[in-house]
Specification:
Blueprint: E1 18-24, H1 29-32, H2 36-51, E2 56-60, H3 65-72, E3 76-80, H4 88-91, E4 94-97, E5 103-109, H5 112-115, H6 121-134, E6 137-144, E7 151-152, E8 157-161, H7 162-165, H8 176-187, E9 191-195, E10 212-216, E11 219-224, H9 233-245, E12 255-260, E13 281-283, E14 286-291, H10 297-307, E15 312-317, H11 319-322, E16 333-336
Parallel strand pairs: 1-2, 2-3, 5-6, 8-9, 11-12, 14-15
Antiparallel strand pairs: 1-16, 4-5, 7-8, 10-11, 13-14
Length: about 350
């Protein structure tokens, strides 16, 4: 089975120029319940915000195409495709670039976040279908991974969590060393920085895109809390310590930029929702980030704007997305620009 790194492919940083953003329309009624329409409105707001910066294509079951068109308008393209759910980061391909700017995608195995949500057969087949539809080279990965569990710097380093990747509900027959080898081979990285656990009550088992992400080579944004009694305190403090003690693939110590988490909000079942300002989307010339009607919203926006100078930061209300178990980063997937498209502002064709 071909390994991407052996053929010169690697995952570029999310701030590299994009060809487009892929999303998928909410459709699992068992998940969203009475919040489905609110979720669809929130997804449309995110899609429209991103479309200010780069093309957006929304995947949707055929029966939902008309509603997507009405909700998103002409600024968002629609591609009919069979889907179970709407978390494009986790079920879509992870795109790679290779020699002379060649494009490829990793088709990870997907098992519904450790068999939590069924059926997931359509989502498990989505990456292959999308790559074939787009005529993009496909690398089939021999292990389970979701895109929300990784953050790369485009310079040889990936951040992930032990809680997710080493969880027996993902790859029970693989050792830590085997997972590290597969990660390096499929992402084209040389260094893995392991964090511990993710947020309290996180159904993804600790996806890193809620707690830390690269903002530049050698610079990491990390979620924190100043409340010693908060349920996330131990995990976030441990992750901070690990980041401060880590070195990247180039031997650099990391500059860690802290960002205070939003206040606790509970879902209908009384479990804590995974609110995080880290869960944002970097677009061509912009950043689309969440707001939560929280006292920390403005400070979070200012911090992210400092980390991404020259990019316009747009806040979109995200509480109705988080009720489904993820955030703005979770519902989006960037496709890197091809060699003929490598400009910072990107094109607008679809």
């Amino acid at each position: 089975m071909p390994i991407p790194a052996d053929q010169g492919f690697s995952m570029p940083a999310e701030w590299a120029p994009h060809r487009r953003c892929w999303m998928a329309w909410p459709c699992r009624k068992e998940l969203w319940g009475e919040h489905l329409e609110a979720a669809r409105t929130a997804y449309a707001e995110v899609a429209i915000a991103i479309s200010q910066f780069e093309p957006v294509t929304m995947l949707a079951n055929s029966g939902d195409v008309a509603e997507v068109s009405l909700s998103c308008g002409s600024s968002v393209s629609i591609l009919p495709m069979d889907i179970n759910d709407s978390w494009m980061r986790d079920v879509g391909p992870t795109f790679l670039t290779g020699p002379d700017g060649a494009l490829a995608g990793v088709d990870w195995q997907f098992n519904g976040w450790g068999e939590k949500y069924t059926p997931y057969d359509k989502d498990a087949a989505l990456a292959k279908a999308l790559l074939e539809q787009s005529e993009i080279r496909r690398f089939e990965a021999p292990f389970v991974l979701e895109g929300g569990s990784i953050s790369v710097d485009g310079d040889g380093t990936v951040i992930t969590t032990e809680q997710c990747l080493l969880n027996p509900n993902r790859n029970p027959g693989m050792t830590r060393q085997e997972i590290e080898k597969q990660l390096c081979g499929h992402l084209g990285v040389q260094k893995i920085i392991w964090l511990g656990e993710g947020l309290e009550d996180d159904e993804t088992d600790g996806h890193v895109d809620n707690i830390a992400c690269f903002a530049a080579p050698g610079v990491v944004l990390a979620l924190t809390t100043d409340d010693p009694e908060d349920g996330n305190r131990h995990a976030l403090s441990d992750n901070l310590e690990r980041l401060r003690n880590a070195k990247d693939a180039k031997g650099r110590s990391l500059e860690v930029v802290e960002i205070e988490q939003p206040k606790r909000v509970e879902g209908d079942d009384g479990r804590r929702l995974g609110l995080s300002y880290i869960n944002f989307y970097i677009a061509n010339g912009g950043v689309v980030m969440p707001s939560f009607e929280d006292g920390n919203d403005d400070d979070a926006m200012e911090t992210i704007a400092r980390c991404f100078p020259g990019r316009e930061v747009v806040q979109v209300p995200a509480l109705d997305i988080v009720r489904g178990g993820g955030g703005i980063h979770c519902i989006t997937q960037q496709q890197p620009a091809g060699p003929e498209e490598r400009s910072e502002d990107g094109d607008k064709d679809s």
